[in-house]
Amino acid sequence: MSVIEDLTGELTRLPGIGPKTAQRLVYHLMKGAPEDALRLAHALEQLVQRIRRCERCGNYAEEPLCAVCSNPRRDPGLICVVEEAADVDAVERGGGYRGLYHVLGGRLSPLDGVGPEQLDIERLVERIQSSGEALREVIVATSANVEGEATAVYLEKRVRGLGPRVTRLARGIPVGSDLEYVDASTIAEALAGRRDM
Amino acid sequence: MSVIEDLTGELTRLPGIGPKTAQRLVYHLMKGAPEDALRLAHALEQLVQRIRRCERCGNYAEEPLCAVCSNPRRDPGLICVVEEAADVDAVERGGGYRGLYHVLGGRLSPLDGVGPEQLDIERLVERIQSSGEALREVIVATSANVEGEATAVYLEKRVRGLGPRVTRLARGIPVGSDLEYVDASTIAEALAGRRDM
Lengths: 197, 197
Hints:
The structure is a homodimer.
Chain A: H1 3-12, H2 19-31, H3 34-50, E1 52-53, E2 60-61, E3 75-82, H4 85-94, E4 99-103, H5 121-131, E5 137-140, H6 146-159, E6 165-168, H7 184-192
Parallel strand pairs in A: 3-4, 3-5, 5-6
Antiparallel strand pairs in A: 1-2
């Protein structure tokens, strides 16, 4: 197999990159400076060599603790529970959260063989128990779909009574969306969760 | 800068990959097996180390001659002149061409400082002259835009009288397209180039 076919094949394995896009990328890399392609290769190797899981929360980290857990200005009184490390980024982009995280590593999905024991739930329970009264609130931020909801309900049962308040993200109309195009379930949730102005 | 930001930045330099796509790719790579990311890095390094230009036609090659030039079953009586090596692939995908190629390395574009001396034209002239009567036809397959046309006109003048017939690709309605959505210039070209049925 030629090196062009080889690289095209590897690129096609990435999400959202089909054969045509892969080929365009390969031609771009061949046409560009060799240093550009080598820098990309080096960045990939560095990623593999240096990325690990945060020992406390499961987020991606380059040190034993991730950037959030090692930041003394984050509020240890709040733990936001998310499915994946990518969700940490999503919450951070929101910009309003100053607490810590806990990454479950997935969501309950019996059909895919993912039960509670496949998720990082026991370590969350230990974190909550060892935090004592310093931990005020556990925010369940799983996805707003059937599996995410099932995970939230399971978590709530498991965590309830350990001390901290247990909350979940609000359901409602996404910011910037036209009411006409919002689906019926979201409208229903937004109506049920309406707030005083 | 973190390794995640580093790789995200490198990916964003690629055409068609914005910050969001880059981030999704990085999370995909972190979640997957380390071997996958390393294989991609290795394929990039191999590309840089092993890809060169074909000594005869300028196409991408892993040997002194490219896969087309070193194939004894290709017809040396035809040379198809293209702007970029990626265009060789485009013509090959058409499937009907069995001749050789010549890659110009661009097209005339005075505004970008690309004149005839920046293109690989002299070597094409030498190829034609040294081929003698064995070369029957030079097919000019530059782009169907202003710069591509200017390049074709310049090439035709330069090559005319050297012996072989000089042709260019037909203009017309793209296969599979709805006449309603074809632009006026293409309709005019297709009409002018109409053929007996």
